Amino acid sequence: MTVRVRFAPSPTGTLHLGGARTAIYNWAFARRNHGVFILRIDDTDPERSTPENTAQIIRSLRWLGLDWDEGPEAGGNHGPYFQTQRARNYTAALERMKATGHAYPCFCSADELAAKRDLTRTTGATSGYDRTCRALPADEVARRLSAGEPHVWRLAVPLERGPVGFSDAVRGETEFPIESIDDFVLVRSDGTPTYNFATVVDDADMEITHVIRGDDHLANTPKQILVFEALGRKTPVFAHLSMIWGADGKKLSKRHGATSVEAYRDMGYLPEALLNYLALLGWSLDGETTIVSADVLTSSFSLERISKNPAIFDPEKLEWMNGAYLRGMTASAFVDAMAPWLIEAGLTTGEDIDARRPWFESIVPLIQERVRRLDEVAEKVAFLFADPVLSAEATDKALRADGASAALRAARDVLDEVDFDAASIEEALRTVPEAVGVKPKTAFQAVRVAVTGSTVSPPLFESLEVLGKEATLRRIDAALSQL
Questions:
Q1: Are 7 and 36 in contact (CB under 8 A)?
Q2: Which domain holds residue 334?
Q3: pLDDT, position 129
Q4: Which residue numbers are catalytic?
Q5: What is the DSSP letter of 244?
Q6: What is the band of 121 on the pLDDT scale with cuts at 50, 70, 90?
Q7: What dihedral do alpha carbons 177, 178, 184, 186 form, nearest 10°?
Q8: Are 374 and 285 in a shared domain?
């Protein structure tokens, strides 16, 4: 049997972290089992489903490094891959269910249904609909249909069947009493299918073998199993993932911070790091390993290692992991990653980076160990691209301290005489404090502020090497002219 799984988001908003984790698990399971990963767009909500949201979902998945074998942009033999384009499939499935007596028309008005629900709450009945129309005589049904009376189509739940049970690949044996399941609507009065009908038809037609999704869909599963049975189609294996919680033990939401994939991209996270972190929110390789590459994930993923307990989203751990990925990059890869941020900050251009690639790679050691997100890079290296504007606070604190001006003049003199590599720069500058009678901190801070404009910067000696002798001496001269 070829494993076939699907990720079926509704394009009603951004791809959030929970949805991304579901996509990652489906993708990894398919790759681990040499199966097929399908992307299907469940766009049956006409008011909120938009092409922009669909494009954003696809863009987010691509950014994370996920690829799909069938779906939008990929094609496939089981399309279309948008629910709004699959109406004939739903019509054909409903006709089969009508013919076998598994579906019946319900003519109850909205007011009548509301009254029935109120009665259910009063009496404590387990079913919200009393199946009035299921008992209508066949000739009355035919007459009312012929007259064009508004109606929906409901599933005739087989009450004699007994409990609806299944073996969940994550939760284990799970069972729902048949009495708790309504004769739920399959097709609305306007002819559009409901979620629990459309998704089953699609899963059956696409030959889905495993449905891996969040446990917010758990209550839908018994209904969907009944539809599979009514259609005479094989029920897939279900695996329901526990929710992702915030640190407060509540479902992850905007109150915990950003929740969309693209928001984390825009905050300077690497796709590899976010993929790794999301994969570990409910699954583990061995209970200890934290850095798990995409290759390791796809070669090792299994449903058996998914936890039943909710995962806690920890922004600090994600940031640490992102930093670990940044530290593991080659200089060339780091330049590629930071380039868009430098360009957006107006520090450089793509053409400049291409023309001076070795120099840009020389920047990397200054910051690679000191940033956790790419959005921190531009601020830390801005001094390399433009002469700083010295603030009054920095000038007073570092350049007007006792002995600072003398130290800065001495530093300028020794730097003018040395080869401009970090080792030579350090050797020369370490002679300054004793020569002018100041503490090393005073001398080095004066140079740092004069050259970078800040009391905090990447390592001083290496920074001066990257900046170059000409720019360094020019900035020291400019600082001295203000004293």
A1: no
A2: 329-386
A3: 82
A4: 254
A5: E
A6: low
A7: 110
A8: no
